[in-house]
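Researcher: Going back to the complex we discussed earlier. I've cleaned up the inputs and rechecked each line, so this should be the final set. Can you rerun the prediction on the complete assembly and write out the structure?
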Amino acid sequence: MNPIIRYIIKVVLLILVQVIVLKHLELGFANWWITPFIFIYLLIDLPVKFNPLYGMMIAGSLGFIIDIFYDTYGMHASAAIFLSFARYYFIPLILPRDGFDENSSATIRNLGFTKYLLYIFVLSFLYHLWFFMVEKFSFSSFPLRFSQALISSAVAVGLMLIIQYLYTKEVKR
Amino acid sequence: MQNIIRLLQKFRIVLLFMLLQAICFIFIVGGANSFHRSSFASSSNRISGFIYSVTSDVSGYFHLEEENHQLIEENAKLKNQLVEHQIVVGVSFIKVNDTFYHQQYEFIPAKVINSSISNQQNFITINVGLEHKIEPNMAVVGTNGVIGRTIAVSTSFATVKPIINQNFQMTARHKNSKKFGKLIWSDDTYLTATVIDVPSSVKIDIGDLFETRGNDGLFPEGISIGVVKEVIPVEGETYQNVKLSLVEDFSSIYNVSVIKNIKGAEQLELEQKTEEEFGDESNN
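Model: Rerun complete. Updated structure for the full complex:
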């Protein structure tokens, strides 16, 4: 299948899962909630040498779509652009020096489980932290937001690993 | 010149990042401070409204019992208020359909198709819009009390900014003393809100009711907001803060009404005219 069509199908599916299922889960209590955002898998999963300029544009558009559903008006777009920006500088630190196909995305198989976990955890943590800080728009409750970002991104990583496993299974067939 | 182009090329990623972030932040700050939003970028947008109305149709079946219960209770409350069900205590109290009374508020029923309680800025989407004569900045109430006000409206959906949004503000009045303060929501849970700047001369007991003041031209007077949970005195100031527990449970709202103030435009016009004519004098 054409990779672009495949990507668009992924976009539609993940956004629907995000806004229909995850948005209405509301796990947590009082003013401390676990809100995992897994649509960022679409950005994390882009080919490793994808042009960061286009990457940031795609991130902005996807974030804006999520903003529409969450009524957050630019906050997810901002966080997603930050994620793409950070990804560009983070990838060289984690990739093996050579023998890596530049057109492929980072996966468990070609990075190894530990490195892959580190890769998606750092990126999704940055995303969640940026989003929570922008949403609150002040540093007043930083420890609270920090812990919230930590747990939310851990849950998001768990869900993204499940997606990754499902996806690789499909390829083996 | 060539050096500048080379410099731009070298830093193009950082520059694009900063440009995009600047655009986002213009949106974020603008969205936080406005009463109106374009429905294109809100959940009342045609596509998201459609998706939410489909999912709420499905999930709605699971809440039918609870919803029925709420409606029965509200019905019973309203029946108790009917004139026919009360004993006439004096001849002067008989109410008839006379021309001295004009209807000022119109209630438009609506259903919540999407809501959240887990964010700093929570929003609600309802299934009425322009075709039901809904406009931005109209009051929304639930079966027990105040919910919020509309901010973005499309053809058949509207987005509501509820009390549990950190940018929400309104005036709340202490029912017994009629003294008022400003209702805000910051560092609160979805069950509470805070009223600030209530004069400290007012004696407030736990369990007292706070209600709408009816001065904003949106909410009718005397709609419940919350019950006093805690009084927080401020050292050395002439005001006190009050923590309310909200009468509406935002984790389970299904049926709401949007309130149209028929005389609202008239009030607003008069207030603006007054400000234009006499505003300058008071400054001098």
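Model: Worth noting: Chain A touches chain B at residues 16, 19-20, 23-24, 26, 28, 30-31, 33, 35, 52-53, 56-57, 60, 64, 67-75, 77-78, 81-82, 85, 88, 134-137, 140-141 (CB under 8 Å).
Researcher: Good, that matches what I expected from the previous run.
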